[in-house]
Specification:
2 copies of one chain form a homodimer.
Chain A (H helix, E strand, L loop, with lengths): L2 H6 L3 E2 L4 E6 L8 H9 L4 E6 L14 H6 L4 E4 L10 H13 L2 E4 L9 H10 L3 E3 L18 E7 L6 H14 L4 E4 L3 H7 L1 E2 L10 H8 L8 E4 L11 H11 L3 E6 L17 H12 L7 E7 L6 H15 L2 E3 L6 H7 L4
Parallel strand pairs in A: 2-3, 2-4, 4-5, 5-6, 7-10, 7-11, 8-10, 11-12, 12-13
Antiparallel strand pairs in A: 1-9
Helix pairs in contact in A: 2-7, 4-5, 8-9
Chain lengths: 345, 345
């Protein structure tokens, strides 16, 4: 993709390979983004840069920005979440150093990199980009509702943060591993950092959400699957509108419902009960068919993290029987079989 | 409301009374906003300012900014829509003159007033505000889904631009005329200019739409009605997410469905058919009950503009019988009766 196209497209595109920046973070939990990128896209990860010896390690080789650029690195990806989403003052000098070495800077923080004078100036002088993946730029179009070529799968959820991104990544990999063609389409900052492109859909002005979703999965080959990372939940009192705009613009042929059986109500909203899955599926399809009358729910993805094997097997079996739908946990084995059962290959 | 509160609130608040700016517009159709404000809120309209003798007239007295300020005017309200939503170069000098005379400037244009250097500088020097009602400022909260006190009515539609704002304004007036208490809550630029406050909901970042809607109709007296102007349509392939976020945050006790029986499909989207009204009502209520389980559809507002009397009477009667719901055209007589039938007084 040419420089000009990159500059004009409202879809964020990251230049790989990356030097993964870990600051002096000691907690692996706070470096979730860096681990996610390493796990899902090792081909895009050149090296890591740690500011001290006791900083958490991804197991990649340690390079500084100058060394990394000599080895072909294009971007410094900030892989740690700072406290409160602000830019740690201790990071400013290292980031300036990376810009001067010739790297773009990629951040998933709420605070734009440009808000720090030293970073804005160094970027202008070096001609490198400050990429804030949470802040979409450029002009999206209003959705046109036109049916596009190719096939689309959207992961939807009964709540936030229960596996929609992971499910979409795992499904994409399983389709590709099985000999099909599929592209993961990222709609949140971590997903964008993992895939190298996407739109932080919840940061788009509401009028343009469906249009942004249309732009994210353009016409494609007839047998190609765009596997789109869902956001929020149609059941969520704060985010249902985001989920609906994303779904309408995505025009999914297939949806997979993501759930955690231990989640009885919306996290943080104790009066908002999660209804039976069959009701959630019916509601979802009744809305999704507006932009794709042929939409089907093909399966249920359960988050069984922390369950013992027999408990997991039991909950998968019970859910599958109750809903007559292929039910799987994408973190465990058996996804190849599920993909086939769901007709995705 | 104090200056400080005005500055901090993300809800736009306009200072009245207004001097209505008509530029040198000769077409009444292009001065729709000015006519709307004059019709609905004559108490907030002090005078008009026309740049030439053949400019369209609202029938108000003609004053220039200096005269208007001497008579108490607080804001110059741009009541004409320029071609393409841009600021007409011929307006820059007059607007600067209004700022220097001591008026805030209120614009519903897509282009921010600040984007014109001369206006930005004059505003800074005069200490007056440039208010772009289409560009919400400040920080909205994420919706909390908590039930608020007071009663809320939301107008929803089968499409855009068929009478949701007009219906909400007329219902508000009818409740007040009948001795009840009601507040019109504006969610679009024309509504904001008419009521003097509100949020252009389609310009809010999608994550915050439901939260913005919650902020727009805060706790109120038990018998008070907030009558909220709907936006878009749950049936619209581009805007359904906006409509859903607004509805969830509004937590309506009552909805009124606005429709035009001549509209068979979404305007500009010929493949998107408008389904039977009973299906639209069922879909709407199934979604609205998520944040207010007691929501009811109390009536249907039909746009019968241009119909002959017998045709209008026939279509109102047929729709009422088919749906077993009070059906009215808010532009014609009989709203007092409808209000009572719908249990709004």
């Amino acid at each position: 993709m040419s420089e000009q196209t990159l500059a004009l497209s409202p879809i964020v595109e990251l230049r790989a390979p990356y030097l993964l920046f870990l600051g002096n973070e000691r907690s692996a939990a706070n470096a979730k983004t860096a681990f996610g990128v390493r796990d899902w896209r090792p081909d895009r990860c050149l090296a890591q840069w740690r500011l001290s010896e006791d900083t958490v390690s991804l197991g990649l080789r340690d390079l500084n920005p100058t060394q990394a650029v000599q080895s072909g690195a294009q971007s410094l990806l900030i892989g740690v979440a700072p406290f409160g989403g602000q830019i740690d003052p201790a990071w400013v000098e290292p980031i300036v150093q990376a810009l001067n070495a010739g790297l773009d800077i990629v951040s998933g923080m709420h605070t734009p990199l440009e808000s720090v004078d030293a970073l804005r100036i160094a970027a202008a002088q070096s001609g490198r980009r400050l990429v804030n993946v949470r802040l979409p730029r450029g002009q999206f179009q209003i959705a046109d509702g036109r049916k596009r070529k190719g096939k689309r799968l959207l992961t939807v959820g009964t709540d936030c943060a229960l596996g929609k991104k992971y499910t979409a990544l795992a499904i994409t990999k399983a389709i590709t591993d099985g000999g099909g063609t599929a592209t993961f389409r990222a709609t949140g900052q971590t997903g964008i950092m993992i895939s190298g492109a996407g739109i932080a859909i919840d940061a788009v002005v509401s009028d343009f959400v469906a249009g942004a979703a249309e732009a994210l999965s353009p016409d494609n080959h007839e047998k190609h699957w765009d596997v789109i990372e869902g956001q929020g939940s149609l059941l969520h009192p704060a985010y249902a509108g985001v989920s609906l705009g994303l779904m309408h613009g995505s025009q999914p042929d297939a949806i997979i419902l993501c759930h955690d059986t231990r989640r009885t109500h919306i996290d943080g909203f104790p009066s908002y009960v999660i209804p039976p899955l069959r009701d959630v599926i019916e509601l979802t399809l009744s809305l999704a068919k507006r932009t794709n009358p042929n939409v089907r729910c093909v399966g249920i993805s359960l988050n069984t993290f922390g369950m013992k094997d027999d408990e997991r097997a039991s909950v998968l079996r019970t859910t599958e029987r109750a809903n007559h739908l292929t039910t799987f946990d994408p973190m465990t084995k058996g996804l190849a079989v599920a993909i086939s059962q769901m007709g995705l290959l």
